[in-house]
Amino acid sequence: MGQWVIYATGRRERPVDVHRKRADRPSLPSRDAHCPFCHGHEAAVPEIVMELPARDPKYWQTRVVRNKYPVLVPETSVQEDQEGIYRAMTGYGRNEVIIETPAHNVDIAAMSPEQVRAIIETYHKRYVDIYAADENIQCIIIFRNRGERAGTSLMHPHSQLVASAFVPGCIRVQERRAKEYFEQEKSCVFCDIIGFERKSRKRVVFENESFIAFVPFAAEVPFQVWILPKGHQSDFAKISDQEKTDLAGTLRDVLRRLDEQVQGPDYNYIVKSFAKQNRSAPYLHWYVEVRPRLVTAAGFEIGSGVHVNHSIPEEDAEILREA
Amino acid sequence: MGQWVIYATGRRERPVDVHRKRADRPSLPSRDAHCPFCHGHEAAVPEIVMELPARDPKYWQTRVVRNKYPVLVPETSVQEDQEGIYRAMTGYGRNEVIIETPAHNVDIAAMSPEQVRAIIETYHKRYVDIYAADENIQCIIIFRNRGERAGTSLMHPHSQLVASAFVPGCIRVQERRAKEYFEQEKSCVFCDIIGFERKSRKRVVFENESFIAFVPFAAEVPFQVWILPKGHQSDFAKISDQEKTDLAGTLRDVLRRLDEQVQGPDYNYIVKSFAKQNRSAPYLHWYVEVRPRLVTAAGFEIGSGVHVNHSIPEEDAEILREA
Description:
The structure is a homodimer of 323-residue chains. Chain A is an alpha+beta fold and 323 residues long. In chain A, 27% of the residues lie in helices and 23% in strands. The first copy, chain A, has a single domain, classed as HIT-like (HIT family, subunit A). Chain A is built from six helices and 14 strands. A ten-stranded antiparallel β-sheet of chain A has the order 2-3-6-8-7-12-13-11-10-9, sandwiched between helices. In chain A, strands 1-14 form a two-stranded parallel ribbon.
């Protein structure tokens, strides 16, 4: 929102072209003796925060652990500091790892719908529980990195959660723009986007009772997908039980399509929710953003903040629909 | 400015750690039969825009050509379009390649000071000439991508220039913040930063008569370096002949230090200048930003816009000073 993206399809023919290039997805064993996230390796993780139990009481469906190499930690006070013209703050927060399955080698696209739903259930439980338990937390970001190009260091299927005592810049900018739109148009910009996409259908990839997945009009990278609850919902905390099932179905479907049609790219996805203080704002609407890592941002993108996309959103959507 | 960066040095010990990892820098021949940027391969480039002649009139020092796979093109009119709630605009602009040397294998750190100065001279000439020749252009970004992780597709030493008919979002945000600072403090934020860094010296890497290089207080990535003219200068167009020599010396020095101490990382650098309409604003101050590509941004960074840096700026500066 409020950002230009450049569509330069001629760049597909560049001498080195990574468009739709297959990431070398390693074939993994179902259990790895050195993996801290595999079942039975509890001693290798710093602290188990929660588990969703499996039918067999010896196992678990999902497990949440503290990140051994955390981005932020709760063992500090929230303190601001000044060095001349600069401001610093102690890095208060939480960084948890959501282990998505005891199996080392079953990625989301290959999981049962029930298992994917258990992951969503776990995201939701931690999201609600952290806000309830820690009043310092101002924002929670849940995300998944698949593959080395997406920044992951461990192959066992897992997501992460970062809860921070400040509201990140990107989130504040998006909130401000959504608010400006609301004040002008008297409606939620995300609801208006959903309405427009459902009518035009050109960019829609998948739809079920409560969720819609589409390639955004101004997609920043090839095969970017947004997944939104179709009804207005400002806060991820408010997701219903039926919606959890529908989100799991949508997410699994979209990732399967990417695996089939774009040959298993590395990707990040992010559950985009907003600052705690704006959780019931009528102009906000949480969503999941899926970003395949098929291209490398270079100097122009870094210097300008403008993405150069050599794909066309409508074509990407068509390719994904064909799966 | 106005952005948080998280310093998480504990993350250096992660199982897969890319900190100070050597990029596999290929050893290249001095001339490559298939390289469009090598001397004698004029037929392989779309159009030669300018050349700085060499002493030997058969050769050139630098050559500027149109990018064969341009991000933006001038063969269109600047036109806005609307699709429902979305806005589109024809991609008007220019994308030029600055071939830095006829030699296929001599990177900036290994060039003579005169050759690096010729590159700066070329940047400056194109910057000034494009603004003079094309009134549609609102912003010019000059940048260099070294290595595959930095997004380059051709190995022959080259930089690029993108001139656009719109002002990119990142630039507008930076301008706004610098303006806010100026209104409050009655001084240029960049000048204040330079004054502070020169006094503290903790983060300074190199300094000569007219330029200073330091690791910024809130460095977003390991070994990030800013190079600024020490005197207030809002616009890159205003660089003097002596300053060109000093900038060339500083840039070459910084890149040599990176090659020696961080073992030749892939990097981007960007000549950060601002919108045409603000070129003489008292609150703006152009600079060069060098960003080594040692780490991969993952879901948290993408979702939040917050960088997680596992280096400490003061330590990085010390390492670079020791070269």
